[in-house]
Amino acid sequence: MTADEQKIVAAEAALEYFDEGIIGVGTGSTVNHFIDALSKIKHRVEAAVSSSEASTKRLRDHGIPVIDLNAAGDFELYVDGADESNHHLQLIKGGGGALTREKIIAETSHKFICIADEGKLVKMLGEFPLPVEVVPMARSLVARQIVKLGGTPVWREDFITDNGNQILDVHNLEIMEPIKLEQQINNITGVVTVGLFARHPADLLILGTDQGAVQLDPE
Ligand code: 5RP
Questions:
Q1: Which residues contact 148 (CB under 8 A, 6 or more apart)?
Q2: Order of strands, edge to edge, in the sheet holding 84-85?
Q3: Fewer Cβ neighbours under 10 Å: the N or C end of the chain?
Q4: Which residues have CB under 8 Å from 123's CB, separation 6+?
């Protein structure tokens, strides 16, 4: 199976966890497969809250209503992909640049299910460059602080987030203590969001594999 076929396996398996009502929807190629699968049961979807303009468009193209998070109140489920997951289901996210809205929706929903191809499961986070969303005027300031933490920040040029901000992709990090690093980067003035989801990891990881969907709880 290709990685993309594994993404479809994971996306379709996640549907089992949705009953009815409002659902939180992430961003990326795996989530695109989830949205396509969700459209087949859209009569059960009261509305979606979406983590990006791209997902909003895809949801609406399928006839699924999208509402503002402030109007959603409490809801049960958020489904999103990841760039890396460790066995504690702590994640690196933001390869698609939607990390801020993703973190907000993950925090709001009762359950966060991460869907991914099996290549995303790693022993230690950090091989995938860690995205950090920054206020544009603070980009160099934040970059200098990140160098002090041992990382090599690279400006994702020609990319503006849905919130009008910029992204630094931080290379060369071996993330031994994900919660500590998440806090340290969050504390840098000018950082909007760091793409480490460690303090609030996923509740369940569904991996697409050649043998079918494998569901992992946090270790
Ligand atoms: C977007 C994300 C995505 O979930 C992450 O980049 C994984 O993407 P894909 O499903 O295309 O592999 O965090 O900001």
A1: none
A2: 84-85, 91-92, 196-197
A3: C
A4: 86, 87
Candidate from 5, 8, 25, 31 with most ligand 1 atoms within 8 A of CB, to mutate: 31
Q: Are the CB atoms for 208 and 117 separated by under 8 Å?
A: yes
Backbone CA torsion sign across 50, 201, 89, 172: positive
Q: Ligand 1, closest atom to CA 26?
A: 4
AA letter at 14: A
pLDDT mean across residues, the chain: 98
With a cut of 90, say whether residue 174 has pLDDT above it.
Answer: no
Q: What is the pLDDT of residues 24-70, one digit of tens each?
A: 999 999 999 999 999 999 999 999 999 999 999 999 999 999 999 99
Q: Is the pTM of this model over 0.85?
A: yes
Q: What percent of the chain has pLDDT over 90?
A: 99
pLDDT score at 162: 98
**Has 53 been annotated as catalytic?**
no
Classify 73 as helix, strand or coil: coil
Q: Give the list of residues 6+ apart from residue 162 with CB closer than 8 angstroms, or none.
A: 52, 53, 97, 98, 101
Distance of CA 163 to the CA centre of its chain: 16
